[in-house]
Amino acid sequence: MLYAPTMIDLSHLVQPDIGQPARLLHLIDKAGLAEWLGSAPPRIRNHLTAMRFTARPHELVVVPGDNADDWAVVLGVADVANIRPWCLAKAPEVLAGGTYRLAGDARPGDAIIGWALAQHRLTAYKKPDENPQGPRVLLTGDPARLPDRIAEAEGTAWVRDLVNTPAEDMGPGNLEAAAEALAKRYGATIEVTRGDALASGYPMIHAVGRAAARSHAPRLIELHWGREEHPRVAIVGKGVCFDSGGLDIKSSTGMLLMKKDMGGAAHALALAQLIMRSGLPVRLHMLVGAVENAISGNAFRPGDVLKSRKGITVEIGNTDAEGRLVLGDCLTRASETSPDVMIDFATLTGAARVAVGPDLPAVFANSDPLADGLLASGQTVGDPCWRLPLWAGYEDMYVSDIADVGNSGGSFAGAITAALFLQRFVGEGLSWAHFDTYAWRPAARPGQPKGGEALGLRASWHYLRGRYGAAV
């Protein structure tokens, strides 16, 4: 069986509070520090003063209790009244195994997500820790929302594992295996078009992936779930499992992180999991174009003209602008079922990273209400996104002398021109959003290790759940 990172179980890391023995975790912000110190026992006040504790976010001090084996934790947060997903994430990274509860009447809220994710790593390629810590379990007095928050943490962890897996173990076939496992778990159906069978119906996917070894043959993966009478939702992911750049080959440095170029597919799989797991009343159509952009004698070339599924012809100006070709055929297929909303995820352009950095996925949408809803959801749940314009004035950057359009838009506004290219393949009158997401964290933060990352996943999920299901 092909290797694929399994779906994650983090449920043991956060449990309902039914009075279990637990160490206290005191949350303090700068505004409340003086008052808290004033009411603390002298030994604790003196200890914190000696440790120069100032209640900076993620600043953590262990304080002594009344008995020799008794101790508690003091943790700085930005705002005690507004606990965000990563507020508690430093604690489980440094504390000993055991059970913890927040002091007073504080509730962890969305910080459950960060607590759980701080304890997850991809371990398939490392020797076991010689001195493993047991789980750090957080108790919550708000169990009603616990399953939802754990589901989001597990979806995020799955994105991270899929992206972090080396390309040899995360080729198109491995993405197919991951989709098959997902479909089996939730009673979905799956269709896969592979190899040369793509040439007639999905010619751009075929062209990008045909140079790869037979074991990494290209494919279009489609998952269907839900009742026919429910509103249709299409989720599309770019699954370029490794991007050499093709004949316009990348440098060694530019190629180093290209196992992450299937990050859009990882987001699509995780979002599909959240939708099906919750039983959201939609008719889901998830599509992943899975390819390896390799080099061989039959690789597509600069100057070639490809015909797309939509019938638009595309002149290849750069074989390293391949993700938009794969997505073009996927978006055309998704449009054919006339979905109520269509969202795609792709690690598409370096220009988006220049524009908004690694923390923010760039969002493009042909609908203001859709864009506003996604951004508002991201702000609410601590998964921020930033909208960039579909500026029609840049359409002429894709002009081709011999084809309907080129695939390379020149040196300006690369994220915008790539989104404009994709928009050509969206069906008339359909509501569509495009996430140009980095899917990678270049430096570690509490609960957010260096490596694969889900950016825009929870924003999209909360938007869809608010639109089609219960308010969150």
UniProtKB/TrEMBL annotation:
Family: Belongs to the peptidase M17 family.
Protein name: Cytosol aminopeptidase
InterPro entries cross-referenced by the UniProt entry: Leucine_aapep/pepB, Macro_dom-like, Peptidase_M17_C, Peptidase_M17_N_1
Signal peptide: none
Residues annotated as domain Cytosol aminopeptidase: 318-325
Single GO MF descriptor: aminopeptidase activity
Keyword Iron-sulfur found: no
Keywords for this protein: Aminopeptidase, Hydrolase, Manganese, Protease
Pfam families named in the record: Peptidase_M17 (PF00883), Peptidase_M17_N_1 (PF21337)
